[in-house]
Amino acid sequence: MKQKIHATDLEIGMYVSELDRPWTSTSFLFQGFVVKDEGTLNEIREICKYVYIDIEKGPALNESRKPKPVSAQRASKVVIADDFNPDLSHVLKGPPTNKRWQPEEVKLEEELPAAKRIESETRTVLYNTLEDVRLGRTIDSDATKAVIADMVESIIRNPDAMGVLSQLKDSDEYTALHSVRVCILALTFGRHLDMTREELNLLGIGALLHDVGKMRVPDEILNKKDRLTEKEFEIMKTHVPLGVEVLQNTPGIPHAAIEVAANHHERYGGGGYANGKEGETIGVFGMIGGVVDCYDAITSDRSYHKGMTSYDALSKMYQWRNSAFHPGLIEQFIQCMGVYPIGSLVELSTGAIGVVATVNRERRLKPRIALVLNSNKEPFDKVKVVDLMTEATNNPVGAPEIKKVIPAGEYGILPSDYLPLIGTEEVSAGD
Which fold has domain 69-337? Predict the structure, then answer.
């Protein structure tokens, strides 16, 4: 019996039965083996995003993770009472004059190792949580609080590290990975909105658990490859009250965090579900949940639709202000994401093609770009990085600029293949 897991979750002792690429394109001599040492483990993680393990010949993911690692090893860094109800009125008044969180405390490359560990642990906790909900067991709220506390600290230090990891998308695991991405987006947005640590932790708990009710939706509807019928969609909508019920019955889940699950499908102008709320009655956490949930959904590939580029998605969402989203909040979200969000595939004025690797929060049009193709649309021997801000400073007249955004997959380029930036070389655009 096979189990699909991410390569970062692979451990010594597991039996690898299948890779995400042909065996012949690797250096492995056997098509199926037990992982016996760190060298083999690192090699697999280097070349694969996911693998299949044979749980009859070795441990399964859940077995290898017992006891659950996060809750067993440490407690949440921020203690929040279940009835804590923060005053978030400041969020809707526009950007603060004196921001609490200054620009990045550490460089992206310095934060990446911690961010990768935290993102992996978060996925593990979420997989366990979804399985607990599916089987009717009690959620481990301590585990959720612990990984969210770590994620908050990472995003405060440098939000781009988690941002590049959110590019991981797998349509076969949409529900789980969507929830992790929504959590990362929500916390990054919350940081931009100058929320306190306590507020960020509440928002993160709610964002990570916003879709747990889907585990109570019939599998044939949840996993359907085609668009849902009207009747099926009505059943899918029940994931909201079902999720709220699960969270309300879980000890240790703060009431304010449940607002994200309860209201992420409500719409500012009305017409959402499950309770038809409108305007500010949705609540700030609910409105933020709606924005980031929608953004991730429309930028993700599904079996029945191709995801939009980040640029197109933000343009669409701006058009939907007032009807779907709080106008001031959606403008702040666009400011947070940048004109060219991380993972955008762009063509420069030089003709080179690259992937936006980090956002410049002071000069939104000048991000760092991982160059993939040269001006002749030929691949570089090694991915190179150019900082458009540095280029503009050094060469204000002839510095390259972003000419246009192109769809992910164009020229056979998948942005996630070039993020995060590891082992790349920073160069001048003229090199």
Answer: Hypothetical protein af1432 (1.10.3210)
